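// run 5 | inverse folding | seed 20
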């Protein structure tokens, strides 16, 4: 048995609070075609109707994305593929993608984001430009999610001011007020609860009432999480991992999201109107490991 498996077995005895179980209701999880292909049956590891995001990484053919969506949707899951604006050539390409997803996999929801590409492949640089084509309304999409940035994003605001992010949020709020499509903000994964709570509260103060689906890194080795965090531009909450890394005894053990999620869940219980409504998992330590953690957290 590997160290990860052995430690996870011990952790399965850890009790989770009722508020955390409630907070995990209607969670979602993210996969890529490559990682999804390694899962023999999603029905064996996830509750039926779980929303499964499919990340579209630059270079992955749309055919592979659609085939993955078709397979997971066929197993009874709500599939939400990524539409990264900067890798979409033009409106014809966007409409082709939408047609393929709908006709072959019955898709009616999408995560719209700029995408981490330095040089855009075509006409689009932002998720808002995708919305302005009105194609998602034309094809009767039921849910559109946008990327959320609790710790800012230097690709969007190189000066760390949040000016552009705030302007984009204002635009999305106005879109919410004029459309029947259900909107949400799905965030990058974070590790520190207090700044996330402050950020979420600041949205409400600024008139943004779009629900938030908080990004959470699933259980993984600490080195793996630090590597992905740096690559994905995770901000100040990275210090939680760095602090743990100083303890040699903990360095080789998996990092689990219990403390982060328990704090958010307690805050939600005390503040029922709290705008973080759902949890979205990034299974950086593997889909099976993440699914096992969720099952344990919700069943014990």
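// decoded
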């Amino acid at each position: 048995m590997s160290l990860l498996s052995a430690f996870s077995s011990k952790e399965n005895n850890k009790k989770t609070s009722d508020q955390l179980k409630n907070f995990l209701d209607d969670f979602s999880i993210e996969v890529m075609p490559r990682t999804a292909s390694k899962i023999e049956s999603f029905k064996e590891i996830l509750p039926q109707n779980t929303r499964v995001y499919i990340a579209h990484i630059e270079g992955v053919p749309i055919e592979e994305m659609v085939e993955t969506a078709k397979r997971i949707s066929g197993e009874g899951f709500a599939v939400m593929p990524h539409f990264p604006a900067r890798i979409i050539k033009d409106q014809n390409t966007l409409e082709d993608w939408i047609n393929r997803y709908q006709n072959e996999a019955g898709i009616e929801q999408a995560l719209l984001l700029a995408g981490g590409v330095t040089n855009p492949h075509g006409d689009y640089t932002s998720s808002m430009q995708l919305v302005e084509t009105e194609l998602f309304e034309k094809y009767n999409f039921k849910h559109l999610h946008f990327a959320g940035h609790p710790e800012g994003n230097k690709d969007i605001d190189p000066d760390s001011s949040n000016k552009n992010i705030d302007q984009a949020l204002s635009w999305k709020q106005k879109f919410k007020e004029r459309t029947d499509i259900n909107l949400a903000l799905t965030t990058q994964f974070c590790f520190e609860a207090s700044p996330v709570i402050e950020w979420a509260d600041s949205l409400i103060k600024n008139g943004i009432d779009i629900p938030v689906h908080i990004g959470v890194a699933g259980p993984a080795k600490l080195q793996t999480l630090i590597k992905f965090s740096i690559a994905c531009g995770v901000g100040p909450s990275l210090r939680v991992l760095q602090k743990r890394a100083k303890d040699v005894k903990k360095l080789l053990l998996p990092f689990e999201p219990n403390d982060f999620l328990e704090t958010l869940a307690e805050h939600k219980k005390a503040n029922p109107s709290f705008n973080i409504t759902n949890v979205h998992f990034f299974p950086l330590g593997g889909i099976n490991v993440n699914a096992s953690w969720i099952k344990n957290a919700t069943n014990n």
